[in-house]
Amino acid sequence: MGKMLVLALAGILAALFGERLMEFRRKLNGSRELEAVELPNCHLIKGIERGAEDIDILPDGLAFISSGLKYPGLKSFAPDKPGEIFLMDLNDENPRAVELRISRGFDLASFNPHGISTYIDEDDSVYLFVVNHPESKSTVEVFKFVEDENSLVHLKTIRHELLSSVNDVVALGPDHFYATNDHYFVDSILMYLELFLGLSWSNVVYYSPTEVKEVASGFYSANGINISPDKKYVYIADLMAHTIHVMEKHANWSLTQLKVLELDTLVDNLSIDPYTGDIWGGCHPNGMKLIFYDPENLPGSEVIRIQNILSAKPTVTQVYAENGSVLQGSSVAAVYSGKLLIGTIFHRALYCEL
């Protein structure tokens, strides 16, 4: 009887494991093969060799680019080098990426930049918020941009127990923001176990010097976050759920879900066209290829554009799709005046004229 019970339990566990494995593969789009969608006027950006995980473009065409992310379980072509912030002026005839100098006193050796966001104050001061992972921890670094010197002055490092596994931020002022936590657990093994088990424990946090609180929860893997041009709505990408959540923002900074847009790709970062309100997403068409990196079977890249997301039937357009021979693991797409920048987690970056 005892042996039969052990065998029965083993069979149940094996069945549960098999079910979770199939579901995990489905969430990663493990069977998806990509059909190419090409753009005619594109070239790789010289000088960006270790990723451009996130990009934020100011209204005047200055693009900030975070580069050099080392993320648990993902490929890095230079794991021992610190991260960088690049700047491109998209008004130039031939824009080039220039590394921004960071003020003394900031720990450059452990700089591991992830999501970024800019904020322009009433006096036209530009603040850059950078998610940082020094020694596998999570902080949000706040810089002031000095355009004449192509430099960033470090103002403060923000740490908080609710900012435990930060992926992305959207700045709301010079000292407050929304942030996504992409996992509940911080330990890398537990992080992937959390994903494997399908636990919807990631969330969104509001931070200010006087108040820090959870404002949305129940995400499989909350990732990119951004805000509508009129500042009324917040958009949150749930990477593993293949969805974008549309949230209404309230006066007390709380968020209420209005709708969920379902997609067939793993949406990473979200960028907003300030003139049209269109959402541009850098996506991972097949997450299995991203996590289980194989130089013979490269992770592809995909860019989508979402128009009229608040309508009953938003228009989703696949703007770019490529199997990894040019660009591996796209994570962001941002537009300015007919120009498109596509960044990746750990690979190169692409400049296109639309």
Please give a structural write-up:
The structure is a single chain. The chain has 354 residues and is mostly beta strands. It is built from 3 helices and 25 strands. The protein has helices at residues 2-27, 188-197, 287-291; strands spanning 42-44, 54-57, 62-67, 84-89, 98-99, 101-102, 113-120, 126-132, 139-146, 151-158, 166-171, 177-181, 202-207, 212-219, 222-227, 233-238, 243-249, 255-262, 266-272, 279-284, 301-307, 315-322, 330-336, 339-344, 350-353. Strands 6-10-9-8-7 form a 5-stranded mixed sheet, with no helix packed on it. The longest helix has 26 residues, at 2-27. It is globular. The model has no long low-confidence stretch (mean pLDDT 94).
Q: Helicity level, as a percent range?
A: 10-25%
Oligomer: single chain
User: Which consecutive residue ranges, at least 5 long each, have pLDDT under 50?
Assistant: none
Instruction: Report how far the terminal alpha carbons are from each other.
Output: 70 Å
> Helices and strands: which structural class?
mainly beta
Helix count from the secondary structure assignment = 3
Order of helices and strands: HEEEEEEEEEEEEHEEEEEEEEHEEEEE
Instruction: State mean pLDDT (0 to 100 scale).
Output: 94
Radius of gyration: 20 Å
Q: What's the total count of β strands?
A: 25
Instruction: Provide the β-strand percentage band.
Output: 35-45%
Give the strand line-up of the largest sheet: 6-10-9-8-7
- Overall shape: it is globular
Largest sheet: 5 strands, mixed
InterPro entries: 6-blade_b-propeller_TolB-like, Arylesterase, Paraoxonase2, Serum_paraoxonase/arylesterase
EC number: 3.1.1.2
Keywords: Calcium, Disulfide bond, Glycoprotein, Hydrolase, Metal-binding, Signal
Glycosylation sites: 269, 323
